[in-house]
Structures are given as C-alpha cells and as structure tokens.
C-alpha cells in the first residue's frame, strides 16, 4: 500500500502512555499512519493545522482546552479533518459536548 492510500491519524491525549499504546496499535496496520501527537487541546489545534491528519483521536478530559473545545477549533479551521472522541468516562454529557463540537463519534478507553 502506498502512502497516498494511508489514513493519517493524529493522537491527542494528556497521558504519554496512552499515546504510546495507541501509536503502537496504529503501526500494526499498514493502512494507518501516525501523522502526529499532542498532549493538550491547544497543541492539538496548532499541530493539526500543520500536519493535516485525516482523523484525530481526541481525549476529552485534559487541562486547559478540553477535547470538545479543541474539536470545535479543529473542525472550524479544517472542516475536512474528522475527530473521534476518546474517553475513559461513561459520561453522556461529556460525549454529547464532543458530538455537538463536531466529533463524528466516540470510543471508550477500556483498561480491562
């Protein structure tokens, strides 16, 4: 598979171990490419503008700009970038905020 066909994914999570685990997972698939990483919502917005991923996996609970705010800013600046919310909380309001901000869906981070 050539690089033009790969889905470029950016990871946003304030925990380095989570980003590392997700990066390892992505690298196991030849049709996915790690486009970038960010540890905060603010950094996610800046880096997204530079690396232009196809998809962002966005943690929702972070210090400063949270995932919903970052999602809104990314979708406003780059409407072609799709955002999928990541959360370890089963909080319907949290997920709803992300969807309203422009996320196309969400994934629960299961630890078990």
From TrEMBL:
Domain Response regulatory: 8-112
InterPro entries reported for this sequence: CheY-like_superfamily, NreC/VraR/RcsB-like_REC, Sig_transdc_resp-reg_receiver, WalR-like
Keyword field contains Ligase: no
GO biological process: phosphorelay signal transduction system
Keywords: DNA-binding
Record GO terms (molecular function): DNA binding
CDD domains: REC_NarL-like (cd17535)
UniProt entry tagged with the keyword DNA-binding: yes
Pfam families according to UniProt: Response_reg (PF00072)
Name this protein carries in UniProt: Response regulatory domain-containing protein
Source organism of the structure: marine sediment metagenome
Record lineage: unclassified sequences, metagenomes, ecological metagenomes
């Amino acid at each position: 598979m050539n690089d033009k066909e790969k889905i470029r994914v950016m990871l946003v999570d304030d925990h380095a171990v989570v980003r590392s685990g997700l990066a390892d997972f992505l690298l196991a698939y030849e049709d996915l490419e790690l486009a970038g990483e960010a540890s905060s919502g603010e950094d996610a917005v800046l880096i997204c503008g530079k690396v232009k991923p196809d998809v962002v996996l966005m943690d929702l609970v972070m210090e400063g700009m949270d995932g919903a705010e970052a999602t809104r800013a990314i979708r406003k600046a780059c409407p072609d970038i799709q955002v999928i919310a990541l959360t370890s909380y089963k909080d319907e309001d949290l997920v709803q905020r992300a969807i309203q901000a422009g996320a196309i869906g969400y994934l629960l981070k299961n630890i078990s």
